[in-house]
Amino acid sequence: HHCRTAEDLVGICNKVFDKAVTEHGYAALYAKLCIELSARCPSFKVEKVLPNGEKIVRKAAFKTILLTKCEKEFEGKSKQTLSLMKKIEDATDPDIKDILTVKLKKRRQGNIRFIGELYKAKLMANRMERILHLCIQRLLRDIKNPSEEDIVCLEVLLVTVGKQLDVPKAQKFMNTYFKRITSMAVNPKLPMRLKFKCQDVIDMRKRNWAKKGERVIVRKPATVVRGVHGRPNGILSRPDPRPVALPRQVGNRYGSFGSAVAAAPKPTPQVVVKSAPVSAVKRSTIVKTSPEVPGTKKAVKKDVSFDLTPVNTQVKIEKDILSLI
């Protein structure tokens, strides 16, 4: 709704590009944002006057403006890059000069990564692929005395989109690139840090562009089992289509198709002991009985005699016996 003129379109593109270049961690997110903006923002017709006075009408769209900015940034011809380079030349304080130099390097690396993320997001894929190959060729133009910045940018670019560029139709170009990278990895003039960067890219391609510590999944072709007459009998890699046998359910009072809860066991009958009234002096008899339990033998009565005479009565009897003596 806020993009009504070509100037608004250029302003939106500049803001998104500056954010994507300076914030490296969100390059993929800004690439997706650019896809949405290119679909939503309208295009405008812009008149451009050439030095000879001729007027040319061009179509200004979001994605064309964005790719033009990426190309200028890579070539070092953008306004921000030129202003930073001028500040570095004019700076007298070495600390400020170092800060500006680091800022310029990060901006260039961020631009390289953003170009790769735009290609992965398939924004004008054909044109972006050509731009990426031109970037790699320019970064590999001097392999005897390469600059540190070129090697770092090359590593960032290949780590980002190496897998997408390493396709059969571009195999010839990729092999040529890696021959030059291999020669740089053994260049005695380069410091060890830059040699390791070159070697990391070479090893990454050998691992099918998987990063260190990342699990590589290799999909093997399906193995066909031949039958008796040479016809395919089945494929081992596919799951067995036969249904799995379910466990048999436990039957209960609702039948075999009811709940799988087993019926509770019947309680064991308890033995009841009945005792006759006990006399104070006489010996009593206790009859131990058990009820009839189905499936068992008939209950049997047993007579068990105990001396249940109270203690005080027994003492009295002993005194009577002593008095008789």
UniProtKB/TrEMBL annotation:
CC per GO annotation: eukaryotic translation initiation factor 4F complex
Coiled-coil positions: none
A Pfam family that the UniProt record links to this protein: MIF4G
Entry superkingdom: Eukaryota
UniProt entry keywords in alphabetical sequence: Initiation factor, Protein biosynthesis
Molecular function GO labels: mRNA binding; translation initiation factor activity
MIF4G domain residues: 3-208
Family: Belongs to the eukaryotic initiation factor 4G family.
Protein name: MIF4G domain-containing protein
Originating species: Lotharella oceanica
Lineage of producing organism: Eukaryota, Sar, Rhizaria, Cercozoa, Chlorarachniophyceae
